[in-house]
Amino acid sequence: MAGEPIIRVEHLTAKYGERTIFDDVSFDVKRGEVFVILGGSGSGKSTMLKHMIGLYRPAAGHVWIEGEDIASAEGEARRRILRRIGVMYQSGALFGSMTLLQNVKLPLEEFTDLPADARDCIARTKLHLVQLDGFEDFFPAEISGGMKKRAAIARAMALDPELLFLDEPSAGLDPITSAELDSTILRLARTLGVTFVVVTHELASIYAIADRVIMLDQRKRGILAMGSPEELRDHSEDPFVRSFFRREALPEEVRSW
Amino acid sequence: MPGPEPHAARLEGHRDPRGGLVLQLAGRLDTASTGAVWREAMQLTRGGSAGDLFVDASGVEYCDGAGASLILALRRNQEAAGRGFTLRGLRPEYRQLLDMIAPAEHAPDEVPPHREGFLEALGRAALQLLADQRAFLAFVGELCVCLAVGLRHPRQIRFQDFLLVAERAGIGALPIIAIVGFLLGLILLFQSAVPMQRFGADIYAADLLGIAMFRELGPLMAAILLTARSGSAFAAELGTMKVNEEIDALSTMGLEPVRFLVVPRVLAAVLVVPVLTMVMNLAGLVGGAVVFTSFGYPLVTYVSRVLDAASAGDLLGGLVKSLFLGVIVAAVGCLRGIQTGQGAGAVGQSATSSVVSGIILIAIAEGVFAVIFYVLGW
Predict the structure, then answer these.
(1) What is the least distance, in Å, from the CA of A85 to any CA of chain B?
(2) Level-2 CATH architecture, domain A1-84+195-257
């Protein structure tokens, strides 16, 4: 999956007030790969994601998406970047006053001049992709948490972005749906060359989809490990990383982690 | 005299011949019973006053997290005071529990808790205030740009939202506006007519009511009711969207929340607030008429007095003012909504603060308009 970097994170530092979440973090995401961000709670995974999509301004450093600095891009330049990325939020973040179909159609309405029936058709195919046929006219409040997540993925994919950010896509999904989602992600990555940045804890899912993983750590305030999941499982020198990927309890001597 | 219950926690302290204090813990140290001995144990050992401490736990029959916390707290106090601490006799299974709840001794680079001094707190509050003002200014600027763009390209405005909000904030508010207006007119005319009657001037109470309603009370009350009903609703709605990450979702879709959410609401408020003001004025005059006619004056007198006293300028001035108040109310509601922090409590705070800020700003705007109208000679 070697490709040129599509995202370049350089010396990124994030703070909430006085508290440093991570400090001087740098890494690349290559075009077409499935890149997983891992870490314990409080390690700054979601913060990292929000910096990468330009919601938070970094305390220092830059996030370059296709050569554009997302934090300082304004107006048209910003829209141009955002137009090419899709984001699925942890809670789904569907618009409660719209049906699922309207949710998925919204980006199409705002960014394209497709005729109404084409928009409708595209939105339906996206919902079909996440197995939500028949739920087009339901409101988010009327469906389950897992369905909301899938609908949110459909909405994130509405404009066929080159870059998809998923925040904990499989949390709250049953194993079958979760596996189907994984295969959807893989299919999109392999056939359409979509690049994925995924925040997740699901080990099964990581082994299934991840080309590369970075593991963030609260104490190090940065990257604890980076590599493919198999590499980290077999060759990591850090007992915490090894235990994580082998799904073992921590050895006694590193309990203080 | 009955002895202690067999299962209660017991504590006994005696001086050790070699110096220091021996604390004997016994019985059940569980959540229900530990509290009884906790205070006593702390008093006996306060500030390391007892010297070195030997805790003899051989009589402990049962120990849960509460008991372990007691032992841990004793150890911490001794360590903080630089005195010795020895624990003996605790059964191995409970010792394990103690090890489990004792956090790592060397928490790496933990920032020591820092107590904020008065000056520091003051400075922080001042900075916060400045940041608030800055955010407010940025929001007003963005709103103005979006409104200007929206007026030039009306197709960009989300009319569906606009109509929905206008219906809720406008038609939905008519009953309460009518009731409040009616009662306001009724009370105002009655309260002013009674003292004026002593001077035989009660007929002028109609003038007073007409002018007061058209110029001040109509727009003011309509705006306050709009704040309470709709400003808070905007804040709660947008706040919930913020908490649910919906606003983040909008931004990352490249849809500016201000254009998408705030502009339709502000425009809807601007549309409905003059209508609400008119209804308020009318209801107030009707309420006044009820009292006025009950004083024995014919209705036609009332109408002619009101028309005589209040000019079209008064009415128009009031309506113009109401337009601005509508913008303020809607914008503040939306701003507070967008500024919502995390969690359900934050939504409540935003709703409250939208009403508070809304009313304060209405009062300020009323003052500004009073000066402007005075200078213009209206």
Answers:
(1) 8
(2) 3-Layer(aba) Sandwich (3.40)
